Amino acid sequence: MSELFRVEGLTKSFGGLAVSRNISLAMQEGDRIALIGPNGAGKTTFVNLVTGQLQPSAGQVVLNGEDVTRLGAVQRVRRGLVRTFQVTRLFSDMTPEEHVTLTVLQREGRATRILSRFHGNSEVAGEVETILSTLGLLEVARRRVREIAYGQQRLLEIGIALALRPKVLLLDEPAAGVPSSETPRIEHALERLPKTLAVLMIEHDMDLVFRFARRVAVLAAGEIIFQGLPSEVAANEKVREAYLGNYAHARSVA
Ligand SMILES: Nc1ncnc2c1ncn2[C@@H]1O[C@H](COP(=O)(O)OP(=O)(O)OP(=O)(O)O)[C@@H](O)[C@H]1O
Fold first, then answer.
1. 230 CB contacts (<8 Å, ≥6 apart)?
2. In contact, 10 and 20? CB cutoff 8 Å
3. For the ABC transporter domain, which residue ranges apply (predicted)?
4. Model confidence over 168-205: pLDDT tens digits?
C-alpha cells in the first residue's frame, strides 16, 4: 500500500527544552501504530505538531503528498488529519446521536441550521448510525452524555472524529480514565474502525497497545528510539532502559 502520511525531522523546543527531536515516521492506509513512551516523553506535543495545534521549529508534515506543515488545524482536518483529545470535550446534555449529527452537518457546512430539522434526513442519519454502530454506541444514541458510561463518552469522541471523515486518525490515550471493566468495550470498538483508516494511538495501557498495534514507536526524551513490531519492542534494550523495564518485569513475573 502507498504512503498516506509522513513526518520528517519534526523538531520543537519550548525555550531551552527540546521536546521533539528530529522525529520521522510514515503511515500507510490501514496502519495501526501505537506511540508509547514515559510521561513527559513528548507524545502529546508530537500529536499537536502533526495536527497543527503547534508549529514545529523544524521539519515537515506531509499528507497525501502535500506539505501541510504551514496549514492550521482546521485546514488539516479538512484534508483528513483528525485527532481526539486526552480529556473528553462533550456536551453533557446532548446525546451521542446529536453530537455525531452536528459534526456531520458541520463538515458539510450545514450546522448553522436547526439540528432537529435534520433528524429526518436519511443520508445524515444513515452516516450517524453507521458511526455509532461501529463504536457500539447505538443503544445509547439517544441518552444524554452525562447518563452514559465514561468509556462510552471516550468512544463518542472517536465517533465525532470519524464524522470528520479522517484518513489519518490520532487517538490521544483513548482509554485514559476508563475503568478496566470497560476497556474491552474500547478494544472492540478500535477493532471495528474502518480498515483503510490509518490510526496512530498514544496509550499507557500496555495490554491495549499490544492488542491494537501492528507497529510500535517508542518516544523517549523527544526522540523516537525504536520503531518495529510489537513482538520486538519488549526485547529492545534501549526501550527497556527508557520505559518498558517495569512493564517487562511485571509481565515476566506475572
Ligand atoms: N507549552 C509548553 N511549554 C513548555 N513546556 C511544555 C509545553 N508543552 C509541553 N511541555 C513540556 O514538554 C514535555 C513533553 O510533554 P508532553 O505532554 O508532550 O509529554 P507526553 O509524553 O504526552 O506526556 P504524558 O504521557 O504525561 O501525557 C514535558 O516536559 C512538558 O512539560
1. 34, 209, 210, 213, 214, 215, 216
2. yes
3. 5-246
4. 999 999 999 999 999 999 999 999 999 999 999 999 88
How far CA 235 is from CA of 76, 229, 232, 240, 243, in Å, comes to: 37, 11, 6, 7, 12
Nearest alpha carbon, ligand 1 atom 14: 42
CATH number of 3-253: 3.40.50.300
Pair 172, 149: CB distance under 8 Å: no
CA distances from 209 to 132, 216, 230 (A): 23, 8, 9
Task: Answer yes or no: is the C-beta of 166 below 6 A from any ligand 1 atom.
Answer: no
Closest protein CA for atom 6 of ligand 1: 14
Query: Taking the mean position of all CA atoms in its chain, how far away is CA 130?
Result: 19
Q: What is the pTM of this model?
A: 0.87
For the Cβ of 179 lying below 6 angstroms from any atom of ligand 1, the answer is no
Q: Residue 174: in which H helix or E strand, if any? A: none
Predicted complex ipTM: 0.91
Strand, helix or coil for residue 133? helix
Distance CA 202, CA 227 (A): 14
**Nearest alpha carbon to residue 76 among 90, 55, 57, 59:** 55
